[in-house]
Amino acid sequence: GHKVTLVDLDQNIHDQSTTRIRKSLARGAKKMFGDDADGAKAFMENTMGAISTATDACSVVKDTDLVIEAIVENIAVKHRLFKELDSVAPQNVIFTSNTSSLSIAEIAEVTSRKDRFGGLHFFNPVPVMKLLEVVKTGDTSAETLSTLTSFGKKLGKVTVECSDTPGFIVNRLLVPNLAEAIKMLERGVASAQDIDTAMKLGAGHPMGPLQLADYVGLDTCCFILEGWSQKYPDVELFKTPETLKKLVAEGKLGNKTGEGFYKH
Q: Which of 46, 79, 95, 187 lies 20 to 30 angstroms, CA to CA, from 4?
C-alpha cells in the first residue's frame, strides 16, 4: 500500500474526513472478512495507520513522491498552491491535479516541473468508481505518464490516458449532453421524465440526463459550462442553458438541496 498524508487548512475537516474514511473502511472490511473479526481489525488498523493528516502542505511535500491536488476549482487559487509547493518540493516529486474542468497545462504553468505534471481525475464516489483518467499535457514526460498510469493500476483503477482537453474524456462528452437535454426541455420537446425515460430505455443509460444533472449538482454543471464558454465563446455546445442558470440562482442544486429538475 501507500502512505498517504491528507492536507487541509482546517483540522475539523480532517476529523470529519477521518471519521468518514473509518466508516467506509469498516463497511469494506465486513464484506472482505465476513465473520473474521481479527482479520477485519488488522485490515482497519493497517490502513488507518498509513494515513496521516497535516495543515501545512509545504511542510510535508518535502517527504512525498506524488501530490494529488483536489482544492477549489479556481485557477488563481491552484496557481498559488502549486507555486508554493514547487518552491520547496524536491525535483523528483510529481504534481497532479484532480480538476474536472480546468486545463492541466494552465495549472502547471507556474511551476518549474512541467514534465512532471499531469492530471489524475477520479470519479465520485472514488472507492466505488473504477475509472481514472490520466491526463497528459504537451510537456508531460513519458516517464511521468507511465508512473501515473502504474500508480492508478496499483489502486485497482481502470486507467485511460487522454490529452489535456476541456473535460478530458468523460466530462467533455457528458456535460454537453446534459446541457442539450436541458435545452430540449426548454424548447418543450418533451418533459423531464420522458427525456430521462427515453435515454434509459432507448440508449441503455442507467440514469437519464436530467436525473444525472441533479445527482452531479446543478451548480457543478453550471460552473463547468460557464468556465468553458468563457474560454471558448464560439463553441455552441458549451453555452449554459438559461433554465440551469435560473435553478442555480434559486438555490435548487439537485439532490444535495432536495430539489433541481426533480424534487428529492
A: 79
Rounded to whole angstroms, the Cα distance separating 201 from 203 reads: 6
- The answer to whether the beta carbons of residues 53 and 18 sit under 8 Å apart is yes
Which of 171, 177, 186, 191 does the annotation list as catalytic? 171
Whole-structure pTM value? 0.90
Active-site residue 236, yes or no? no
Does residue 106 have an active-site annotation?
A: no
- The Cα 4–Cα 6 span in angstroms is 6
| Catalytic entry in 97, 100, 101, 103 | 100
Amino acid at 161: E
- Residue pLDDT, tens place only, 109-161: 999 999 999 999 999 889 899 999 999 999 999 999 999 999 999 999 999 99
- The whole-angstrom separation of Cα 264 and Cα 250 is 16
2 is catalytic: no
